[in-house]
Specification:
Length: 70
C-alpha cells in the first residue's frame, strides 16, 4: 500500500520545482522581482513542508481503513 503512494508523493513533491523555473523568467520589474523572489524560497519550502505533512497525515489516517478492507 505504501509503495503505491510513493511515486505519487514524489511526483507531487517534484512538481513545484518544475514550475519554479518558468516563473523566474517572468520579469515584471527589477525591484518587484527582488522583493518577490527574496522571501519566495522560504515561503515555498514552508508551503511544501506543511503540504507534505498534511498529505502524510491524510494517508496515514486512511491506511488502517484500507488495510482492514483488504
Amino acid at each position: 500500500m505504501t509503495r503505491g503512494w510513493l511515486p505519487f508523493v514524489i511526483s507531487l513533491l517534484s512538481s513545484p520545482f518544475i514550475l519554479l523555473p518558468p516563473l523566474s523568467h517572468l520579469s515584471i520589474h527589477p525591484y518587484i522581482d527582488s522583493t518577490i523572489y527574496q522571501p519566495f524560497p522560504l515561503l515555498s519550502i514552508a508551503l511544501i513542508v506543511s503540504w507534505t505533512s498534511s498529505l502524510l497525515r491524510i494517508t496515514l489516517s486512511q491506511l488502517p481503513v484500507s488495510s482492514r478492507s483488504l
